[in-house]
Amino acid sequence: KLTVLLCLCLQFWKTNCDDGVACNNLEVIANLNDPKGKHVCTTCTDEQEAANFSSTRTVPTNTVFTKDITEVTMDNGMCTGHAQKTFSCNRTRTTYNCTNCGKCTPVWIGYKDKKDKKNKAHLREVKDCEDPACNKPPGELFYEEGYCCQRKSVGEFEYNLIESNVQTEDWNCLNGCVYEQMGYSGSRFCFSQGSKTVKCLDNPEE
Fold first, then answer.
1. pLDDT over 80 at 14, yes or no
2. How far is it, in rounded angstroms, from Cα 186 to Cα 117?
3. Is 105 helix (H, G, I), strand (E, B) or coil?
4. What CA–CA distance (Å, rounded) separates 143 from 158?
């Protein structure tokens, strides 16, 4: 199983986001509930509709909530929403297969995207699912949020990002991130599930 360290998530935010945006900020909530976004589909009533909603994404998994998410509690900069009907979708070579999780509770944080300067939401955790197999700690949501490390190591080798939105389904890769191995100009790699330790090296001083 792919080892994804929690520090990867922290490095992602330091590289790509500005801290200090409240998770209950109105722009953050609007971004979280964007019907053209990642996770909220108010018209999804079954597994097939959740799969159709997820089909525009290239990440290996996608969590779909069926109601607009509103804040219930806020703690340490993270907001927890109401438990609601949720689908967990896993990508195959050509489509998503979705499972009805029953009710799950979403947890998210707010951030300012350094690229477009907009306040956005990042799904941090999915917890307390009626189907425990659908629970997703922060480490698992790292790839679901679709971030590509600019530089990463896999085992003993290091790689630099070349492209970030490539159709890699034919190679059963986790996402659309394509890398060049350091020391091998012109090489191209994408990554699937494996046993080697993965580290994000965007902030090598950390």
1. no
2. 33
3. strand
4. 18
